[in-house]
Every structure is written in structure tokens, then in C-alpha cells.
Amino acid sequence: MARPRTILYTGKGGVGKTSVAAASALRCAGEGLRTVVLSTDPAHSLSDSLGGELGADPTPVRENLWGQEVQAQREMEAHWAEMRRWLGRVLVDRGVMDIAAEELTVPPGMDELFSLLQIKRHVESGEFDVVIVDCAPTGETLRLLSFPEIAQWWLEKVFPLEGRMLAAARPVAKSFFDLDLPGADALDEVHRLVRNLIAMNEILRDRERASIRLVMNPDRMVIREAQRTFTYLNLYGYLTDAVVVNRIFPAELEQGYFGDWRRLQAERLREVEQGFAPVPLLRARYFAAEVVGEEMLERLGDELFGERSPAEVMHDELPREITTGPDGTARVRISVPFAERSEVSLKKVGSELVVSAGRERRTIILPPALARRDPSGARLEDGALEVSFADAGPRSAQP
Ligand SMILES: Nc1ncnc2c1ncn2[C@@H]1O[C@H](COP(=O)(O)OP(=O)(O)O)[C@@H](O)[C@H]1O
Ligand SMILES: [Mg+2]
Predict the structure, then answer these.
(1) Cβ-count burial 107-126 (b if 16+ within 10 Å, e if not)
(2) Of the ligands numbered here, which is closest to the C-alpha atom of 15?
(3) Is 1-313 a CATH 3.40.50.300 domain?
(4) Is the Cβ atom of 282 under 6 angstroms away from ligand 1?
(5) What is the pLDDT of residues 100-126, one digit of tens each?
């Protein structure tokens, strides 16, 4: 049985993720695809957007369409209860107040992580053709999901030992440190989590079926944050197949007060092109009314997708690749199909790498580990520029 198409929408709060996700889902359902749209953002607004009461499980909205507002609390209870109880006890024993201990048993990002496991459930159930996710702001949680190698290592190297070691350590820990080690149930949860993370990673890195779409407004700060997320997504091998720019002032506002805003937005749109090309851009205007209810969502969908289907994979390669060598070198590969050897120039300003050729520009926000280094070489080959960074060596004591 074929896996469903999975699309994740992410971006800063308020940019229009929920609206765009709901509009995409409505359109997919209209095409006859069995579609579920789920939100993992604790600030749920999918119910309001679709105009109905959605439950914590897929709730029918109309033909071929289900909506779901995932309850992180419930997922946590189902997947992490034993571990929480144990951590809670340890913290309370050490004088942390009950309420604080309760908070501390859930590392940041963990609740969304468990919510995202719903994707795995839907992919495995075979009930849907399309799974659309309205994610919490920023791609933080996707970063948590991107270390299956580490999870794998734990699973293979640490867990087989741990049972025996814990059995031996338990009485010692109790009498010397007055510490109860986690019980078998809690450890089972950790095992299950690791297995789930590996499975999720496989689902999300399947570039024929899964992709992420970055939603933004034509505002500088919003674009910058989306670019940072884009860098991480590329770094971890997740495919971004489209970039959505929502709330663009329409041409009618050319005159007067909003005329200046429109010109500014035109500039921001160019920045988006430079920052994300060749990933296609989907645009939607700033409507004169809130986007709620099916009629408005359909208008938003028409605007964004035109003749296309939201379920298409709109772009199928990673436009930036960041690889590291065993000797500590790193290479950033940027596709610049327009560039000729003679005209390419490369500039690094802070954490930003700017490649220009004639009138074309690409800006890349480097991950912190590379932002500290200077490029040590560059090579143009097959329409891609490969920039290398030598190992920074031991960090110097200078600031
Ligand atoms: N293109 C648009 N034009 C006008 N209002 C919009 C548009 N897109 C979204 N909205 C409105 O903006 C608000 C925030 O959108 P929402 O989709 O909930 O953002 P997010 O999920 O990113 O926080 C909602 O009230 C929504 O109806
Ligand atoms: Mg939302």
C-alpha cells in the first residue's frame, strides 16, 4: 500500500499557517483525495478556521475531509507517563516544588514531538491519501526529529547493556544516593520513543512523499526567521517544496498610505526569491476580511495554487546541501544554474553568505557552526557552487 502524501506547514505565529493548511486540505478533499488536516500548535485555531468543532482524533468535516486538533497533554500521557512520574519523583525528592517539577519533566519541544507522532499513526493506518500538518511556530521540533543516528546509537549500544547495569546499580543507587532508578515501564517508554523517532524520520525524509512548506509574510523579520528554518531543514535533509508568502497587499492599494507599504513589500518579495530560490513561491493577497469558513478558504486556495494541486511535490531537490567531512571541513552546495564562472562573487557578512552573479543573488543563512568560520575555497560545477570551510580548529580564547 502506498504511503500518503504528507505536507507540513510551519512558520512564525500569525503568518497564516492554519489558514493555508486548512485551505490546502479543503482543496485536496475537493479533488477526491481522502485528507486529514491536523494541528499540533497548542494555539489551536483549526476549528475556527474550518468552522466546526474538531476533536483530538480525526473528526469528519465534509466529504473526504477530516480535521484534528491534537492534544499534546493526551499524547504525553499515552507515551511518557512513566518517565514523567519517575522524573517528577526525582525532582521533588531534590526539593523542586511540585508544580515546577511537573513542568521540568517535559523538556521543551517534547509535547509537540509527541503530537507529531500522529503523523506516523495516519501514515501507517492507510486511511488517508493526504496528511496535512499545521505545525507549531518555527521548525524547532523538526530539529529534534533530525537525529535518528543518535537515537539509533542509543538503541543499539546503550539499551542492551542498560537492563543489566540497572539491575546491578539499583541497590547501590538506593542506599548511597537515595535515588530510585527508572523502572522497566519508564525505560520501555524511552525505547518506544526512540523507535518512533526513527520511524518519523524515515517518513519525513521520504522526498517523494513528504515535504515542508514555509509560510511567511513579506516582513523582514519573518523572512529572516524562515530563512534560518530553511537552512536547518536543508541541513537535516528535509525537503522544502514550496514557500508561501501570505498577506501581500493587492495592486488596488497602489495609491496613498499603503502605496509605500506595497513598494516595501515588493522589495521583501525579491528578498524571498533570493533567499529560497529555486523553491517555488506561492502567493496570496491580504484579503479584506478574515480567512474563516469554507468560502474564504477556497478563495485563499485558488489564490495560492491556481491550477495546481496542493498535493503535488512542487520541487524535488534540496537546493542547499551542507555536508561535513571527517577532517572537520564543511561544504555548502548552492544551486546557481544562472551563474558563469567569470561573474560569480561570494561574500560573507556575519552569518550570511551572499552569492551574486550579474543581477541574480542568493543569500544563505549559515548554521552557527559555520557562521564562525571563513570560506576557504569555492568551486563552480554543474550549475552549483560549492563553498568549503576549513576546520576552525580548537576555538581560540579570543572573543
Ligand atoms: N491572506 C489573508 N488575508 C487576510 N487575513 C488573513 C490572511 N491569512 C490569514 N488571515 C487571518 O490572520 C489571522 C492569523 O492567521 P492564522 O492562519 O491563524 O495564522 P497562524 O496559524 O500562522 O498563527 C487569522 O485571523 C486569519 O483569518
Ligand atoms: Mg495557527
Answers:
(1) eeebbbbbbbbbbbebbeee
(2) 1
(3) yes
(4) no
(5) 776 777 666 677 888 888 999 999 999
